[in-house]
Amino acid sequence: MEEARNAPARKNPRTQAGQATELAESAWAIVLFCVACGAVAGALLPLLARLLLALPWAPLEGPAELLTSVPEPALSLGTIAVGVLGGLLLGLSAAHESLSVHVCDTHVTLTIRDSAREFTREEISVFFRDGRQLVLLAPDGLERAREHCGLNWRRLTDALTAHGYAWEEQDPYHAEFRRWVPGTPGLPAGADALLQARARAREDEHAGEARELRGELLRLGVVVRDEERRQYVRVVTGSRAA
Fold it and tell me: Measured between alpha carbons, how far is 125 from 150 in angstroms, rounded to an integer?
């Protein structure tokens, strides 16, 4: 495992020394995709309402009757307009939340939600993909960043390795994780309570709180990996606080 992480990264001959690489999702593409989805959903809404009313019993029968009472073409035009507006708002929010990555020979910068985090080469051990998330590990084995990533993974991998950063397809410490249950032995003091609170936050879909609790666990040297509703943990011994 250690040999794989320390192996020399492949170089891209087209990357010149000192030349930075910027990777970002197209804001226009995100917005247009969401607007198109909203328009399609709006166009299908009257049809769905009519199908519901054709059933012997259906939920939301009152709203469906109210919706279909609007004459055409005002009904279809109205639902499409609402869908487009909803898609536009969703697209603007998604574009604001999208991740951009600036890669150069000396450091990597991750920017999301108007907040930039810079990591020097000495702070970086390896990057890897965990589902739809980009994860950065430090030399001590702790996570330094974990962000949802909508970038093209091949382009991102090529950019990182071209600048000499290590990349692996999965967590190099994957085998060290064990499933957490309340009272799991071997955890630092306070970690069990944090994991219980995080489990509740995930059940209630409080993503911000779960993210904050992940940070608190990292300060204790505990790395968390989520798999559906389950939490898996590994303890980094001798780690420094995040």
Answer: 22
154: its two tokens: 């091949």
Domain 2-25+98-168 class? mainly beta
C-alpha distances out from residue 227 to 4, 74, 219, Å = 25, 46, 22
Bridge-based pairing of strands 107-112 and 100-103 is antiparallel
58: left (phi over 0), alpha (psi -120 to 50) or beta: beta
pLDDT tens figures, 172-222: 999 999 999 999 999 999 999 999 999 999 999 998 999 999 999 999 999
Q: Which residues pair with 116 in a beta bridge?
A: 111
Give tens-digit pLDDT for 161-173.
999 999 999 999 9
> Global pTM?
0.71
Residues of the chain with CATH 2.30.29: 2-25+98-168
Q: How far apart are CA 39 and CA 81, in angstroms?
A: 7
- End-to-end alpha-carbon separation of the chain, Å? 24
Residue showing tokens 């509703």: 229
Distance CA(110)–CA(113), nearest Å, equals: 10
> Contact, 27 vs 98, CB < 8 A?
yes
What is the 3-state secondary structure of 38-77?
HHHHHHHHHHHHHHHHHCCCCCCHHHHHHHHCCCCCHHHH
The two three-digit tokens of residue 238, written as one number: 């001798």
